[in-house]
Specification:
This protein is of the alpha/beta class. The chain contains eight helices and ten strands.
């Protein structure tokens, strides 16, 4: 379904979207600006609001050969971090985000807003750790964990394809047994007083390093 107010529907892009929804058998519902505000929970809603089915997040749906970079987040709790990671994945051409263990709901209102549309460009899967490791080891893929206990600087290794970048919980980082499963542990230099980077920022630094290694020089 798509909801729109008449003043918003005057935009050519909005009209194309309305026509596409109706052509696919969906419902395009005209309403008022006030109702759009109530539906979105915002005082300044966008021109249209869409309602979509949740995606199938089964790990088996992931085709690892479709991208050189994949992001794996373990016990990620903050919807803002999830949104930033998905946007980073889109920017570097990653295949998607695999959520391991008890993570924030990617379909919550806060998460969807934080993705700024990247929710629709990235594959999303969810699994427990044992299921993920079993799936990962059934095919090609280098698991690279970020850890303060690592001895390798993140720019030292040559990363294999596909690279699975593993980032841990915002507060605790990766559990020791998860680090032990990684093919490689790396860390980023911390020259100030803080001992770690924000999880989403660390993911972005790693993702761009992997991308830069593969870009034509």
């Amino acid at each position: 379904m798509i909801f729109f107010a008449m003043e918003g529907a005057a935009h050519p892009l909005a009209q194309r979207l309305i026509d596409a929804v109706e052509a696919r058998g969906g419902d395009a519902i005209e309403t008022s600006h006030d109702i759009l505000s109530k539906l979105s929970g915002k005082d300044n809603p966008q021109a249209v609001i869409g309602v979509y089915r949740e995606f199938d997040t089964a790990l088996a749906k992931i085709d690892r050969s479709s991208a050189d970079i994949w992001i794996v987040a373990q016990s990620l709790r903050d919807p803002g971090n999830l949104g930033t990671i998905l946007r980073t994945g889109d920017a570097v051409g990653a295949g998607g985000l695999i959520l391991v263990d008890d993570c924030v709901d990617p379909f919550s209102v806060e998460s969807v807003r934080a993705t700024m549309g990247a929710l629709f460009t990235q594959r999303i899967a969810s699994a427990r750790w044992d299921e993920f490791i079993g799936w990962l080891r059934s095919g090609p893929g280098q698991l690279v964990g970020t850890s303060l206990k690592a001895t390798h600087d993140y720019q030292q290794p040559t990363y294999a394809s596909p690279t699975f970048i593993l980032v841990g919980n915002e507060a605790q980082g990766l559990p020791a047994e998860y680090e032990a499963e990684c093919d490689l542990l790396v860390k980023m230099p911390m020259l100030g007083k803080a001992d770690s980077l924000n999880a989403a920022v660390a993911t972005a630094v790693m993702a761009y390093e992997v991308l830069n290694q593969r870009r034509p020089k």
